[in-house]
Amino acid sequence: MLRNVMLPRAAAVLGLVVLLSGCTAAETPGPTPTEDTRLAECDAAAAAVSDAVADVVAGYEGPLGPDGSMTASPEPLPSATPDTDGSGDPLSAAVAAARETRERLGCDADRFEDELQTGLDEVRPEGAIATAVWRRVSATLLGRIPADTTERTLQTGEDLAEVVAQIPEGGTLVLPAGTVEADDTIVLLDGVTLRGAGRDATVLRSSASDAAVLIAATGLVKVVDMTVEVAGPDPASAVVAGPWASLVLSGARVAGATIADGIGGAGVYLSAGADDVTGEQTTLEVTDTLFERNAWAGLAVTGRHRVSIEASRFSGNGEVGLLFMDATSGSVRSSTFSDNTVGVAIAGTASPTLLSSTASGGSVALQTDDSAAPTVNGMDIGGATTAAVILGGESGGWIGGVACHDVPFGIVVSSGAAPTMGSNSCALSRGGS
Fold first, then answer.
1. Furthest-apart CA pair in the chain: how many Å?
2. What is the C-alpha separation between 359 and 48, in angstroms, rounded?
3. CB atoms within 10 A of CB 90
4. Do residues 214 and 240 touch, judged by C-beta distance below 8 A?
């Protein structure tokens, strides 16, 4: 279940900005080709571009792993700046050659675009990321992505994945009130905003396996005023992001993630390897967001991701409301945990700060393990059936301002744990290792 999600840096392909339209015929010395020869050369140039796209897309093919990871490394991506001499990557070379052919032979623009469209339509990508790359590169080559940052509203009958592929970096896609059904994983290759009409008004309901939304972008992604809900028969998480992701959730809900055989189950899974460097900046900002009914975790963060969570709710998540692993850090303020098996779990060397939050129901409100070192300053805990706080492993940190009521045990400290205790209104006891 706790596999690292090493998403490819697929956003690099989006730098491919090439204009195949608007070329004019150039004076060409030497014999003039026959019309049939000219048409054949123009068509071949278009076909070469679509063949190169197929090769790029093939580098991203393959099924996703249990938490949205690729099972194989992708082929190298095309250069962000296509070469004019055709000496670089194959796609840039094909585009440069096609441009030269069009200028030399005066290829008909409409025919060329039709041939290119036909070739692109014949590409058969396999897998969520490969399909997203194909859509995005196709939209770029056909000039369907606005040059400037823009806001676009999804219209009735439009395919969400197709529209997402046409939103430029920094753009906003508005999802109107109602329910948008998605059968396949929505892959975000760029830093964009998905904005609804309110979390109770706009619902992205996904029946995709593995993940409803997969973030493979290096730019900032925002999910605002909407619900992302897993509703299919296959195990899946709601939102999965990798080590280079930066995500903002505001006024949102993520719900219904399902799990089977260690696959899926997270409302949001922000992943990275333990040694991946994400920098000192905050990579996840959560405000006024509800994480509910997710089979494994409401929110799980790994690697070195740093979070800021404020005024949010974690309710009815199967195993844990909020999970910190590896060397994650950040702050949780004024948030509520209710009826999760474990409210907040902290493991590895994670060192988050919990401030002025409340927890009710479930088995344990706060549990630490390994060498975790949280700072807790203000937590009201009631109704936990096992204990309010369990400090396990060799965990440390500082625990203060914790109030307990209606619990069989207050703060239980294992023999190997050595936290610093501030002033708490909980019974303190030593447990086993």
1. 96
2. 60
3. 17
4. yes
